Amino acid sequence: MFANLPGKVALITGSTSGIGLSVAKKLASQGVHIGLNGFAKPEEVTAIRREIEDQYKVKTFYHGADLKEGPQVKSMMQETSKALGSVDILVNNAGIQYIEQAVNFPEQKFNDIIAINLTAAFLTTKYALPQMLDKNWGRIINIASVHGLVASVNKCAYVAAKHGIVGLTKATALEVAKTGITINAVCPGWVMTKLIEIQIQQRADQYKISFEDAQIKLLEEKQPSVTPVSTDQLGDLITFLCSNSASQIKGSTYTMDGGWTSQ
């Protein structure tokens, strides 16, 4: 356990499933109180909160803000801080995707992706920083993507947003470089989530091959290791970035992509 983390408060957007939920549990295992956000049924939220509270003996809070809506983002930040005492750690994880050629890309879809994947991260950072500056301590980790560093076809909005996240990370990190606040980005490649599992199974069914062979077929197009990143691995990296050992890591971009961006 990292000595500086017990009693801190983390808000993780998009944390009712996948990467965000794994990060929430990793931080809770360090004694960090957890602010959750994301779309889920009330009974699912209750079950997630109960599991985290019972297993890790920390407090939790949930806010269902629609991150496309600026006033809801502000309310989430204020209410989480009021319920848990502060927001010491902010993990901007929420994101959406839409795949289409730019010439046919719906304007509203483009705007929604920019709003959720980029603007919301700016707003949460804006609202978190005053309290962090008062304490002279804070951690902001922005979940970008390999698509914050390289591009793929038919993903113009997502690539634009994730490149923006990397830029936002660098600029804001420089603004607080002389303080006890760090701001960094993590750029995963293929991550084993339910969404990816479905894609792999679809390929397995389509080609009548095993799940393992279908995984290789999907990943070998981009990820040389042909092994997906696990949500636990991402959680471990983010937890480290919250520690005192990472206090001089500022404005950095960490890839965890099985070699994708080394090509």
Question: In short, what is this structure?
Answer:
The chain has eight helices and seven strands; from the N terminus they run E-H-E-H-E-H-E-H-E-H-E-H-H-H-E.
Structure description:
By secondary structure, the protein is of the alpha/beta class. The protein contains 8 helices and 7 strands. It has helices spanning 18-28, 42-56, 70-84, 107-135, 156-175, 194-207, 211-219, 231-241; strands at residues 9-12, 33-37, 60-63, 89-92, 138-143, 181-188, 253-256. It has a 7-stranded parallel β-sheet, with helices on both faces. The mean pLDDT is 97.
Distance separating the two termini: 36 Å
What is the β-strand count? 7
In N-to-C order, the SSE pattern is EHEHEHEHEHEHHHE
The chain-level structural class is: alpha/beta
Q: Bin the strand percentage.
A: 5-15%
Q: Shape, please?
A: globular
Tell me the radius of gyration: 18 Å
By DSSP (H or I, 4+ residues per run), the number of helices equals 8
Overall pLDDT, averaged?
Answer: 97
Please list the strands of the largest sheet in the order they lie side by side.
Answer: 3-2-1-4-5-6-7
Low-confidence stretches: none
Largest sheet: 7 strands, parallel
Helix content: 40-55%
Pfam families: adh_short
InterPro entries: Sc_DH/Rdtase_CS, SDR, SDR_fam
GO biological process, one term: monocarboxylic acid metabolic process
Protein name: 3-hydroxybutyrate dehydrogenase
